[in-house]
Amino acid sequence: MNSAIIVAAGKGKRMNKDINKQYIKLMDKEIIYYTISAFDNNTNINEIIVVISKDEEEYFKSNILNKYKFSKNIKIAYGGKERQDSVYNGLKLLSDNSEIVLIHDGARPFISDNIINDVIRETKDKKAVVVGVPVKDTIKIVDENEYVKDTPHRNLLWSVQTPQSFHVNIIKEAYNNAYKDNYYGTDDSMIVERYGYKVKMLFGSYENIKITTGEDLYIGEEILRRR
Ligand SMILES: Nc1ccn([C@@H]2O[C@H](COP(=O)(O)OP(=O)(O)OP(=O)(O)O)[C@@H](O)[C@H]2O)c(=O)n1
Ligand SMILES: C[C@](O)(CO)[C@H](O)COP(=O)(O)O
Q1: Which residue out of 83, 103, 208 has the highest number of ligand 1 atoms within 8 Å of its CB and is therefore the one to mutate?
Q2: Which range marks the domain in which residue 105 is found?
Q3: Is the CB of residue 181 less than 8 Å from the CB of residue 174?
């Protein structure tokens, strides 16, 4: 059984709007509608858990769940302070027979069916899989005074996206260890890497952007227009 955990419990501070960015509309539907639909329409996903802010539960139910009538049963978990805490709460709701879990940002609405299928297929064998794209810019590491300290070789640098996909036993063990060690990472792969697992990188898509700041909204609408 393949599960999806969609994390949508952030505050969207960098978007600087008075509404949680997942509920901003692109064209005529909310960002979170597109994200959930991608997994709801995928025939290899059997379970969907959406992690939302507890204080947005009524809003989510009336404006998303009850409005769009998704075909799969959508389980709800509550978010935590950090993205990792939200993921952890989602992991706790996984069905006992879930074997693979894809963890995906609610703010990445343009995930394609093909990438979801590729990730599931690759995870069966590689056990830990992420998607990303090679960086296009040269990346600099700067010091605390914002002077350039180092320039890693660009050919080794990828910008990682989601879904990040794992055998359930691996991600659960890694997360349990992270909380024992009070370790926090900015993505799920970091946690699995820390506990010694090799993570396979798959090419994602330059359209699989994370809606984070204002300009991502019009970029996102253009992506939708071209579909
Ligand atoms: N405590 C948190 C923080 C983030 N997220 C989710 O993780 C995804 C990626 O996080 P990000 O883009 O940083 O979202 P926010 O944390 O909401 O954005 P900001 O940092 O601008 O506040 C988003 O879909 C967000 O809703 C979450 O579920 N729980
Ligand atoms: C998980 C992620 O989308 C991979 O790029 C990213 O780390 C999320 O970071 P955020 O600060 O929670 O948006």
Answers
A1: 83
A2: 2-226
A3: no
pLDDT-derived band at 218, boundaries 50, 70, 90 = very high
Alpha carbons 209 and 225: distance in angstroms, whole number: 15
pTM across the whole model: 0.97
60, 105, 188, best to mutate for ligand 1 pocket (most atoms within 8 Å of CB): 105
ipTM of the complex: 0.97
Is the Cβ atom of 21 under 6 angstroms away from ligand 2? Answer: no
Query: How far is the C-alpha of 200 from the C-alpha of 13, rounded, in Å?
Result: 31
**What's the CATH number where 199 sits?**
3.90.550.10
The SS3 of residue 221 is helix
pLDDT at 54: 98
Q: How far apart are CA 143 and CA 145, in angstroms?
A: 5
Ligand 2 center to 114 CA (angstroms): 21
Taking the C-alpha atoms of residue 7 and residue 206, their distance in angstroms, rounded to an integer, is 21
CB of 186 sitting under 6 A from ligand 2: yes
> What CA–CA distance (Å, rounded) separates 87 from 67?
25
How many domains are contained in the chain?
A: 1
Q: Could you tell which of 111, 164, 189, 210 is best to mutate to test the pocket of ligand 2, judged by most ligand atoms within 8 Å of the CB?
A: 210
